[in-house]
Amino acid sequence: MARPLSPEKRGALLLSATQTVxxxxxxxxxxxxxxxxxxxxxxxxxxxxxxxxxxxxxYLHLKQDLARxxxxxxxxxxxxxxxxxxxxxxxxxxxxxxxxxxxxxSRLSASGHILDDTRAQGMGxxxxxxxxxxxxxxxxxxxDASIAFLSSIIEHIADTxxxxxxxxxxxxxxxxxxxxxxxxxxxxx
Length: 189
What we know:
elongated; DNA binding; repressor
């Protein structure tokens, strides 16, 4: 009878994969990921069928972590600007607290290795945000563009804000507000 899988080992492998992918992108080797986690490479394949399966799981793991930061008190009934500011600030705070996760998620997203089904599953927790953005476009608040395009603009400004705040923590609040102001102006009519 096979031994049950250890949640601790799985967690260690995902943490190791996060750090390694953040540093090396999708060129990270399974041997390097396993070594960093302190397990044999064969153990990695006990938990993840392949390197590609690991990347799909890692992407979902990181999206779920981001959702835990953004969605619990998402202000569903607030105005568009307040909801967008909530998302922007929570994303920036998550990125500041999870540099490796942010870099790994960015590298995985841009790699071409993440399947469409995985991307769709990763967006599941954020459907309220997508719906809000679609409504704001329909109502003429946001520019008439695809949600993916608008999200990309917001994400890039948020990433710039994260990098600046990380280097200048003494003015974090001012630049968090300034970053959102710039993002809002970039996507509104």
